[in-house]
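Sequence, structure tokens quoted for completeness.
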Amino acid sequence: MQLFLLGLNILLLAAVWRLMLRKTILDHHRDRLFDLRDELRAKFVENGWDLDSAIYKRLRNLTNGYLRFTEEFSIVPFVVLEARVQANSELCADLKATFDKEFHVSDTRLTAFVNDYRVQARSVMLGYMIYSSWPILLMCYVLAPIVALNELIGVFNRGLSRGLKAVALRFRNIRSSAGDALDSAQKVVAKKVFVPDFVEEYSYRIGGDLPSSPRRAAAC
């Protein structure tokens, strides 16, 4: 009887995860990507940058690629592909060189914006990849207190008074602090499980027209 109830609970949890939580996670991250895409256009208009420029179209393609990737992402096939590509150092160098050229611009202010936008969009995608995979998400929950403690130790190392203030502030905002700790743990895990540059390049291929080399085509 206990075994039956355990199995039933597992099935219920799986149903809640697949039908409710995972969809909520997907919608949340897609909304953030849509917001970023709207901000991209607004920023170009605000600064008088050309909406018909290649860099604008490439940033939109990158965002569209992330949006499409959220719909088809499956952790096991992606990690296998990522491992195959990372095992070929020549291919990795080729990927990075080609990709960096796609987002090179001569305007200093535009360069700073492009770099910041890419970091934000990639962070959203990596967050989705972590939160939509329950085993990795569980790992983040386990690591969150450790990451939070490590951050507090770092604050105490800069001064006792500052450390005590940080502890008091976190206790006053316990829910926000827990969310921040989980977010920090997610970022740590994301860098260990995935290669951020490859996630970005792969997503861009989905959303745009990145030129393919024979080596890249063979690997992907």
In short: The radius of gyration is 21 Å. Residues 210-220 have pLDDT under 50 and may be disordered. The CA atoms of residues 36 and 121 lie 7 Å apart.
